[in-house]
Design brief:
With 152 residues, this protein is of the alpha+beta class. The chain has two domains: 36 residues; 115 residues, no CATH class. Helices cover 53% and strands 22% of the residues. It is built from five helices and five strands; from the N terminus they run ααβββαβααβ. Strands 4-1-3-2-5 form a five-stranded antiparallel beta sheet, with helices on both faces. A hairpin with a 2-residue loop joins strand 2 and strand 3. Helix 4 runs antiparallel to helix 5. It starts with a helix and ends with a strand.
Amino acid sequence: MKKSIILCIIVGVILGTYMFSRYDKKELSLVLNEIDKTIYVFQYGVYENEESLKNINIKYTYEIKDNKYYVYVGMTSKKQNIAKLENYFNSQNIKAYVKEINLDDEFYNVIKQYDLLLDEAETNESIKTIMETVVAKFEEIILNDKNKRITT
């Protein structure tokens, strides 16, 4: 009888340890991230007029607020990806700074999917492709009905 109880305890400890080791801390951070719906955009600059945008030679989108053109070159919903994107933009000599914004559910859910790709991206070319797609999706979902454009 004692041997059965000890065996059950040992099996319980082993299975419990195994189950807890499989728990993914990323899931908790995703749940916490979903609560606030913060997006981190990489703002390239603020311009006075559309003519000023013609000299930008990277893929970007812009929105017009208070008669100024706010230019974005990348975005993520995960704080962990900020450093990766900063390194990418620095390696490309692109001066951009991080700005927090809150967006609607539709774009937030889309960008979370691209963040999964960004988590795995290891080359500048793959990061570039992901950022170009995110910028295009931002315009399609957020800016589509407004007088805002995406440009290369």
